[in-house]
Amino acid sequence: KxxxxxxxxxxxxxxxxxxxxxxxxxxxxxxxxxxIDWQKEDLSPKKDGxxxxxxxxxxxxxxxxxxxxxxxxxxxCEYNGKVVEERDVTFNLGEGIESGIPQGVEKALEKFKLKxxxxxxxxxxxxxxxxxxxxxxxxxxxxxxYTITLNNFEKLKETWALDSDGKLEQGKFFKxxxxxxxxxxxxxxxxxxxxxxxxxxEFDSGFVEEGEIERKALLISNHLNxxxxxxxxxxxxEAKEQCNKALELEPTSxxxxxxxxxxxxxxxxxxxxxxxxxxxxxxxxxxxxxxxHIMVCNQKMKExxxxxxxxxxxxxxxFAQKDREEKDCRFGWWTGKSVEVEKMEENVxxxxxxxxxxxxxxxxFIKQMKERxxxxxxxxxxxxxxxxxxxxxxxxxxxxxxxxxxxxxxxxEGGGGAQEAARRDEDAGGVGTGRA
Length: 436
Fold this sequence. Notes:
The chain is an alpha+beta fold. Among the domains are: 3-34, no CATH class; 41-154, Chitinase A, domain 3, CATH 3.10.50.40. 47% of the residues lie in helices and 14% in strands. The chain has 11 helices and 10 strands. The strands form 3 sheets. Strands 3-4-7-8-5-6 form a 6-stranded antiparallel β-sheet, with helices on one face. Strand 3 and strand 4 (51-57) form a beta hairpin. Helix 2 packs parallel to helix 4, helix 3 (187-201) runs antiparallel to helix 4 and helix 6 packs antiparallel against helix 7 (270-283). It catalyses: [protein]-peptidylproline (omega=180) = [protein]-peptidylproline (omega=0). Keywords: Isomerase, Repeat, Rotamase, TPR repeat. It comes from Cuerna arida. Its EC number is 5.2.1.8. It holds the Pfam family FKBP_C.
């Protein structure tokens, strides 16, 4: 708890006006100040105290690194009061995991100025989480202290600072990075790079003719690549959104239709998914993956209908049972086995009328529900007939059609069920180009 004496000239205090009645104009003031407590700067995204900064040496200027910047830092990592790591490292901000940098350090570096030295208190969820770092003898769920010095950085140009050619170049650059990470099965980093490419390509009216054609094709490819990564990461709703964006630009895209079908199938919407797979099959009748997924959709739809039928059957039985019980009730206490009658001397006629009206309403409801049940059974019967016809049309007699696209090494998208179909993409090693 530091105590200090501060002397303030009048122009830094109350100036010519003073503060009546105790402080006259043009007064120099002396303050005794005691530091009781203070809070470190919270740099965590949700302001949950997960990343706290204490500046040890202020930086120079006002510029700070942005996502994608090349940074050169010196770091010291402490666990339980012991230094477990000290080194100089250069990496691209946003890809620090490849250089053994936790996300908490990366988030904090976006606020650093050149030559700044700060101490960071990082909670485990922004450090190495439940995996820990066995190579550094850091157990799971450990909080860490990092001392970071930002020696140098090269800021990545923002989208608004580039012309159309520059944006196109950056779009290609980040797409290639994403593809390289995809090949290594580093899906989160690949997804991040594809999204970065989209940032440079999404909004620009300055492209003309050939440049616009190339921009559009590159943008579609990156949306489709994002969808593929998201399906593999089981983020099906966002995958569907990425497919929709690609299909807005190219409504007939086989990859866009196929991957949206996959996403809908995983989201429990086989009827909607089937429409996309059928469209793919119309465009390319030889697409075995689409044909197989249609059969998967038919099976899922059949299972859903069976569940609905059982639900309705149970519902009908409950109402019928209630109707039977009410027929036996005689204004007494219902025990579940017999009726104990309590005679009523007043308003018997009114009560009988109310009972008759209620029974009439229940009978009408049961009648409507039975009619609906019959309609559903009839629809299911016709659906089964249609399903048998579709299976006959798509069946080829070749057992290879039931294998996945990855196992067959075909040039078609998908195959082997919805999950296996998501395992490859021609544009990752050609991700996002060519046919579906």
